[in-house]
Structures are given as C-alpha cells and as structure tokens.
Design brief:
Layout: H1 6-14, H2 36-42, H3 53-67, E1 72-74, H4 80-84, E2 88-90, E3 99-102, H5 118-121, H6 123-138, E4 144-149, H7 151-158, H8 161-170, H9 172-196, E5 200-204, H10 210-235, E6 240-244, E7 262-265, H11 271-278, E8 282-286, H12 288-293, H13 296-308, E9 313-316, H14 326-337
Parallel strand pairs: 1-4, 4-5, 5-6, 6-7, 7-8, 8-9
Antiparallel strand pairs: 2-3
Amino acid sequence: MNDLSPKERILRTLNKQTIDRSPVICPGGMMNSAIVEIMDKTGNKLPNGHHDSEVMTKIASDVHEYTGFENFGIPFCMTVEAEVLGSEINYGSLSCEPKIQKEAFPSVSNVVYREPGAMEKNKRVKAIMKSTYDLSKKYSDVPVIGSLTGPVSTSASIVDPITFLKDLRKKSEDSHRVIDYAADHIIEFARLMVESGASVISIADPTATGEILGPKMFKEYAVRYLNKVADAVHAMGVPVIIHICGKMNSVKKYIPELKSDAISVDAPVNLKQLKEEYHLTTMGNLSTFLLEFGDPDKVSMQTERLIKDGISIISPACGLSTSTPLKNIASMTEVVKES
C-alpha cells in the first residue's frame, strides 16, 4: 500500500478506499499555490501563465516540485468563467492574482445569455485545456485537479455583486435562471477539463457561505446548483471536491446534502468535529495565516494535529498568499509524507 502513486492515493481517498496515508494537495483556482518565491526561483511567471499554456504547465510543474503538493492545480485564479460570460478581467501581476475589473451586468434581470459552446471557443480556456493535457500525459502518476468557480460566485462575478445579493431575495426567478445558466457553462468547463485529462474536479464557491447567504438561501441556491455541477461531473466518471469558505454554524446541517466526494473548509471550522458528526471525507484546513506568517515548527505541529484528527486530505484552509514562504509549505507537506 505504501507504494501508491499520488493519483492512486487521492482517487482511493475520494472513493473511500484504504490508503497508506492522507494525500497533501492544493487544488488551484481559489486555492492557488503559485507563490512568488517559486516563480522568482524558476523564471516561469504570472501573469503570462494565465494565458500561455507552456508557461502554465511549467508553473504547475514547478509548484508540484518545490512545494511537495501531490497534484497539479490549474487554473491559477477564479476569473475564467466570468471572463467567458462577459466580465472584464484585470489579469494582475506576479504577486497579485486576477480580479474582476467590471461585472458584465447591473442586475440579474439584464443578463444576456450566451449559447452553449462559449467555453470551448475562449482562448484562455484553450490554454488551460492544453496545459491539462500536457501535464496529464507527462506526469501520469500525478493527478491534475481542474479547479472551478462555483455557480453562485460565478454569478456574482458577472452581475454587480451587491445588486446580485439583493436580487437573490427580490428577484428569485431571474436569480435562479442566472445561476442555472452559470452552472451549465461551468459544467461545460468541467467536461473540457476531464476530456483533457483532469482526474479530479474541485469547486470553490466563496460567495456561497453561511455568513453571506444565510441558511435559507444557502439551501435554495448554493446546495442546489453545486449539486447540479457535481452530478454532471460524477456522470463523467470523475470525483468532486467542494470548498466552502467561512464559518459553517448557520449552514452546517446542509453540508451533508452536498454531493461531493470530499468537503474542504476554512480555518475557523472544527474539521474533526465535522468529520465525526456527519461521517464525511474531509479536506483541509491548515491556516493560511499560519502558513504565511508562522514558522516551520508551528506549521509542522498544526499539520501533525490534522493528521492525528484523522483528516482525510491535508491542504491549506483557503487561498494561499503569494508571499507565503516556501519553507513553511514544505514543512507542511514533509510532515504528511512522513506520517
């Protein structure tokens, strides 16, 4: 069992099969691990890596090599879906990830719906697919995790987010239509990733939190459309990880309804308690604040605690700062591999 490849280990974990130890991963997207220290060391840098498949592949490979994370995670941001659906993107810099420059629509009532196939035609998506294919072929024992932005967050990235959150209450019918539309295009993105060689799909939906939505709208919008995407990916024969940000107290009872093969959570959540209460495959949740500002010994201690707590997959709790010291990340991954 101790000769499992990284791909075998993560797939066996997500299928609730016996493993030798927990995988240690960072799935990309919101949880991007392309830190400045690595890019300065190698010369393979963002923002070029958001568009150039060759640079993207090199950065993903560099991250895997230097951090010890047992996966490749692409893309390196959460703006791809919104770009395809019409929003303006600021692609950032070496140290600053891409952001939404301007949402495409002022309200859910004004959304102009694009036909299916928009993902496949987008140049940045084509670069992501080429990188996914190249990584999966060159490193067949390492999983490529295709990282998606969830339906609620994508919708809040194409509609003015403040108005969007108001529309969820005031314009329910139009809101459902927009989120369903976003989910359809996200599913298309997932299909392209899987066809290109992604062996796991990870969905992060940071707008879909208990603090932002409250329990009623979390159930109505987040659970419903995250499950629509998860069901579609499962139909492709690929497992799904779902990450939910923030505290979970107000929505915890709905977490078991999510059709994910693992649930990833933020640092404030007691992951051991969540695992024991609902018998979930859990992922996380090493503090990214600790990873950025702590020292290797403290990182090691907290990683050991997660292992002792029986956490299924060890990973950062949320998005890493690009200034996170490489020695802290390496301390985390080394402890897991020695467990």
